[in-house]
Amino acid sequence: MKKIAVLTSGGDAPGMNAAVRAVVRTALNAGIEVYGVVRGFNGLINDELIPMNLRSVSNILQQGGTMLYTARCLEFKELEYQQKAAEICRKHGIEGVVVCGGDGSFRGAQKLSKQGIPTIGIPCTIDNDIGCCEYTIGYDTATNTVVDLVDKLRDTCQSHDRCSVVEVMGRHAGWLALSAGIAAGATSILVPEVPYDFQKDIVDRMKYTSSLGKHHFIVMVAEGIGDVDKLAKKIEEATGVETRATVLGHVQRGGRPSSRDRLLASQMGYYAAHLLMEGKTERVVAVNNNTLMDFDIDEALAMKKPFKDQLFKMAAEISI
Ligand code: ADP
Ligand code: F6P
Fold first, then answer.
1. 63, 256 Cβ separation under 8 angstroms
2. Which of 186, 216, 196, 20 is nearest to 101 (CA)?
3. How far apart, in whole angstroms, are the C-alpha atoms of residue 72 and residue 34?
4. Does residue 224 have a pLDDT over 90?
5. In testing the pocket of ligand 2, which one of 107, 127, 129, 130 has its CB within 8 Å of the most ligand atoms?
6. Model confidence over 192-208: pLDDT tens digits?
7. Ligand 2 proximity of 168 Cβ (cutoff 6 Å)
8. The pLDDT of residue 41 is above 90
9. Rounded CA gap, 152 and 148, in Å?
10. Nearest C-alpha to atom 12 of ligand 2 is from which residue?
11. Distance between Cα 35 and ligand 2 center (Å)
């Protein structure tokens, strides 16, 4: 193998730069040329590639976002664009591509591989919704960001004896709401994986904890559960507690990656580059029980990660 490429695709995630850096440095160290593809699969379709050297990835380890930019490229769902991308790779002599992104990006990687260009996926998403991987790159940083923001919300919530309803990202998964909800001491955590009862899980719980001396409340809500402004109004009407809603939004995607994400991304980038150099394709790198491993993309995309019900139960028991 003489030449590979790396790209970042889909929603950006803190730690993507660390993964790109590890891929580039590992391959260059093995005497392999590396191209960076700009703006995900768009960059392949539009032939927007930049030759990378050791210094191209200097000073990015600690930066959020992605130096290669990212995009959602709907055209890549069409065969003609997948074929065009493969032609562009062959034109440059690129023999494999590392794709940093979420499950959608892995589907794109799979299609590119079917066109004869080997691909390896690295799970980068703050949602942590990749079934074959316990922790995805960006999840730890986003959890820390949410906790920091909710700690700030708690100051004002406590000062006013209020309830704060906080919406966090996660697309269709509740991992961010669960981890940050526990770490920030939320009274209630609402996630798509666990149906909730408004009266029992919010109103009665606030009344019960109030009887135990609690005077302010945090309700952590994964996006997609519903309109948090309406929920806040409903809570205030039902409990008499002044309630305000806050949607944290895209701040959760930014910020300097945590040391944990930098370490995870460096390990995954190194591992992915070696898989490609060993001639593997259509693999997704993952970490489970602190061990790096890889799965066939089809297998990885079909895997469902069991929600941590025990953790969810624990949260309910200790946040009183
Ligand atoms: P994520 O990778 O974060 O899940 P998306 O679901 O938006 O983000 O996917 C990112 C990109 O991957 C899409 O914009 C598209 O270019 C590519 N992609 C997603 N699904 C497919 C598919 N089924 N076939 C080909 N390409 C896809
Ligand atoms: O997949 C990451 C994510 O941040 C989701 O949590 C969120 O629903 C989505 O991306 C937002 O997408 P966009 O950045 O296109 O608004």
1. yes
2. 20
3. 23
4. no
5. 127
6. 999 999 999 999 999 99
7. no
8. yes
9. 7
10. 11
11. 27
